[in-house]
Amino acid sequence: MPFPWIDSLAWTAAFGATAEIKGTARWIIRGIGAHKGVVPASIHDLYLAVGRGDAKGFTVPAMNLRAMTYDTARAVFRAAKALDAGAFILEIARSEIGYTEQRPHEYSAILTAAALREGFTGPRSSRATTSR
Question: What predicted TM-score, i.e. pTM, was given to this entire model?
């Protein structure tokens, strides 16, 4: 699997001793993700296409990852990769942020780390038409 050392970096991003250490780990993860094409994205344009009737015949699952986020996200990315899955959403609701103590900057870094760890960069079918 790609980036086996990212496990430690993800742990540090969530549980590091200080805010500075956590922030640095998150910054490193996002930088590696950007370099490898693993970046947070919106499906807003997809929703617009569905509304216009330009895209149809599928659903977009949304998964709220609240606990063991890194491990759960790794499982999601493994399954998505094996299935060559298209669009899906990994999210945390605003109401969940408080009791999970996962802020968006941590959450997105952890998801990026999980995708990197599993070598996930999106569905294979989209890579032929997507320039990077």
Answer: 0.85
